[in-house]
Amino acid sequence: MAQEYRVGLFWKMIYGLIMAGIAVLLINLIATRAQDNKSVYIFILSPAIMLFALFINLIIRKVVITNTAIIYKNIFRNKRVAIVDILGYRAKQKYVSLETNSGEKLIIRNFNDYYRSEDLFKWIKGNFTDLDKIEYAAREKMILQDESIGDSEPERKENIDKAKLEALGYNLFGFMMPFIAIVAQQSYVMVFIGIACPVGGLYILSRSQHIVKFFNEGDKSSYPAIGFGFMFLVASVLMAALIDNHVLNFLPILFPALLIAVVLFIFLYKNGLDRSVKNINTQIAAIAITSMAYGFGLNVLVNQVFDYSKPVMYQSSVIDAYITKGKGGTHYYFKIAAWPGQIENQSESVTRQQYLSLPLGTSVEVYQKKGLFHAPWYYVVLPETTPPAPAGSGNGNSPGPR
Questions:
Q1: Nearest to 139, CA basis, from 206, 76, 59, 221
Q2: 35 φ, ψ to 5°?
Q3: d(Cα 191, Cα 343) in Å, to the nearest integer?
Q4: What are the residues facing 350 on neighbouring strands?
Q5: Residue range 158-172, pLDDT digits in tens
Q6: Starting at the edge strand that comes first in sequence, how are the strands of the sheet with 78-82 ordered?
Q7: 159 in helix, strand or coil?
Q8: Of all helices (H) and strands (E), which one includes residue 118?
């Protein structure tokens, strides 16, 4: 007797609510804009068709298990695979892939959406081989036979376990770096972190006897990796470089940034790739992006921290003030008038007290420096302020549009 698995009621309700919300937006768009602009109908045609197709697919989508085959059906396809042809399965977070002896795959997407998906997976697990588990065991055995990481199997296992602990510690340290960057808010601190911590990661790679990799593919790889922590470190450096950025011309920074990126890419490509997996393109792409981000972020900071040129002072003034609000809270800004040699006005982040206390037209001092890489940058010195009277006292001190 065939066993049928359809999308559960809970997920039908969730997806249905999302679709209903989108439908309401489309109807509202027609009601408010269609009379003035007939092209609105053309604009909403594609999302309306897609919405209808998704709704039908929600009803049709199902998995059917018979005595001889597994059938996966949705609005776009109806695929049938004979049970005797199935070599094994691979279970991922969002889907389960059944692979046949001929290399064909039946991928059941959004696996957890199905009612009694636990029973379905239990049946798959009980009838087919976990291919990832088999391949992982084979790679683990291959590593333990690698004489370059130890003279005996117990020694190799000890070295692998030690490398895994080092990689885990580095990744945890790297994960904390964005929070340290927020607390520190000092360019020289981030330059030290941006140089010392990645160098530490490269040292782990070079001394691990090729056990530690930069990036692996999760359960497909038997090697520990430091890419997670490394990329958090790079994100911290890049965040510090871009937040409160005062570089006036980035072009002189690009060459030294590219130079560092190329050197880092070559090192990671040579020492950090996990070549035990068939497809290494994802790893190469991750290494390339990380290298470019690191080279740019670090050089923006170095351009300022190691700039010992004499600052040139210019007089400017506050010509506008505005507030932005988001998940990070409320942020206050002054628009500083362009000073001699500059064409565009510049935005300057200020405190709430400065925003409330300093009126438009306030004179400010702008100090411009050459930059280590001849990429000019500046910093603004605002007049000292006194705490404003409490907001709401009829004195205009409530933060808002000026």
A1: 221
A2: -65, -35
A3: 30
A4: 332
A5: 888 888 898 889 999
A6: 3-6, 62-65, 69-73, 78-82
A7: helix
A8: helix 117-127
